[in-house]
Amino acid sequence: MKQYSEEELQEALDCIANGTPIKQTAREYGIPKSDGAADLQRLSPDQEKHLASWIIAQQALGLPPTHAQAFIRRNPVIKVLRARAIDSKRVNGASVEVIRSWFQRLEQPDIQEIKPANRYNMDEAGVLEGIGSNGLVLGSTENRSIRKKQPGSKAWTSFIECISALGRTIPPLVIFKGKTVQQQWFPLNLGPFKDWQFTATENGWITDETAIEWLEKVFIPNTAPEDPSEYRLLVVDGHGSHTATDFMYLCFRHRIRLLFLPPHTSHVLQPLDLAVFSPLKTAYRKVLGNVNQFSNSTVIGKRYFLQCYQKARSEALSGQNIRSGWRAAGLWPVSMAKPLLSPLVVGNTSYTTSDPAKTEPEGSSRTFCTPRNIFRGSDIIWSTPRKSVEFKEQVRVANLLEENTVTQRQLFRKVRKAFDEKDVQVAALERQVEALQAQLETARPRKRRKVDLSPNSRFATIEDIQRTQMAIGEAEITSDEESDSEISEAGSCIVVAVKTS
Question: What Pfam families does the record tag this protein with (predicted)?
């Protein structure tokens, strides 16, 4: 086969670009036709520039096209992104005009005088008890796709969370799907759930009656200001349970000012949606994944769901996350610019393509080196390292000593490697212990009975659950739990034993 240079190939491509047929050009230059056609660009540069603009516009509209690898290589301004589902009403609901109009309410004197400690945001979210998440995972290059095991049932459970502008949270309300709250849904150790409230509804979501009960039993007593004359602000969405007459009148009686978010804007204006619920669900799925990693049979039901949610909640509902949510929404400190600059607001996305050469940050190819200071051994005060991080820091300092030798460095490397191996073993054993505890808790037979509530309350407290657990006594021990909470009446039965030969 005839060899050809890169210059000859470029000349052949120029001829093709000027209109010479590919077959004729390949014959004249002695270049295989497939090589010339492979480098052809069907669209002109201007056409591809317009196509890149169209892709960015489609992304802003929530309709991103699928990628073409060659096109992406020629247009560095475009890259493959992970698409997240969002309701079409939300895409069009959060507009600049809507946000400007709504922020005028925050400028009213009766709202401005409310202290940040008395400003709260309340919302409801839900999860499937045993369902993790789909996403990118690591696997063999020989496989095109991979399966991911889900460790549990698909029963729906929702929860109501409420946070303050200063980073405080109040006890949650957990809403199970069912007719009544059952004591077998709860672990034996109820300490981590102190002050939590529990209830059950037919669909696992909040109802008008549940919202009023939450206001009376949870929000009002847990957010009472030191000065009873001070007002509280409660930011909520426009759910029907929040706009019910009884709910609004109860707020009026207790000096609570309601501020309703505009329809379909919670993803831009609600602190819980912006910085709390996402890390909360991520942490919950992470806990599920840790259990499933070392277990083949643990079923995630209501009992272990509560334990997983409690761990995830303690991690995600931090003061930093809560304050970040209020700041991102522009609700505290009050700043209309925060939501207006959000890429999720209609009209904020630029549809023009920039010069790919300008997309690279200046000086990106520069390498910065940290200066290495030289120490003397007598200048360092050594202490026994208690953690792997402390030991690594001592190794780093020891490597800078003037009198350091090759033997010393090798010794430190070996000891450091041993520390790292032990850390890995300890972490793996901790995960295994958690998984075994989950299996033990799930396999332990529990006595089944609904929780006896106070006639003046719809919610079950930890005290109610403990009282029921102590009172069940001689009740029949049955299987773990049911996905719905319908408990049939116990009747008499005849057990027939068949003797096999």
Answer: DDE_1, HTH_psq
* H or E segment to which residue 435 belongs: helix 406-443
Q: Give me the pLDDT at residue 488, please.
A: 37
Q: What does the alpha-carbon distance between residue 185 and residue 203 come to, in Å, rounded to a whole number?
A: 17
- Highest CATH level, class, for 90-133+150-340: alpha beta
Evaluate if residue 40 carries a pLDDT over 70. no
Q: Distance between CA atoms of 417 and 391, rounded to whole angstroms? A: 11
What are the backbone angles phi and psi of residue 275, rounded to the nearest 5°?
Answer: -140, 5
- Neighbouring residues of 3: CB distance < 8 A, sequence distance ≥ 6: none
Neighbouring residues of 298: CB distance < 8 A, sequence distance ≥ 6: 151, 152, 291, 292, 304, 435, 438, 439, 442
DSSP per-residue string spanning 255-285? TEEEEEPPTT-HHHH-HHHHHTHHHHHHHHH
How would you classify the pairing of strands 460-461 and 197-201? antiparallel
Dist CA 66 CA 458 (whole Å): 50
> Which residues partner with 152 through β-bridges?
300
The C-alpha atoms of residue 432 and residue 142 are separated, in whole angstroms, by 29
Of 117, 114, 116, 147, give the one whose Cα is nearest residue 132.
147
Q: CB 229: neighbour CB atoms within 10 A? A: 6
Res. 450: pLDDT tops 70: yes
| pLDDT higher than 60, residue 483 | no
| Placement of tokens 């981590």 in the chain | 192
- Contact assessment for residue 171 and residue 199, using Cβ atoms and an 8 Å cutoff: no
Evaluate whether 272 touches 254 at the Cβ level (below 8 Å): no
SS3 450: strand
Question: Could you tell me the residue ranges of all domains in the chain?
Answer: 6-38, 90-133+150-340, 377-443
User: And the tokens for 176?
Assistant: 């199970």
Confidence of residue 393 (pLDDT cuts 50, 70, 90): confident
pLDDT band at residue 14, thresholds of 50, 70 and 90?
Answer: confident
Residue count (the chain) = 501
The one-letter amino acid at 170: I
Report whether 163 contacts 322 (CB < 8 A).
yes
Q: How far apart are CA 242 and CA 258, in angstroms?
A: 9
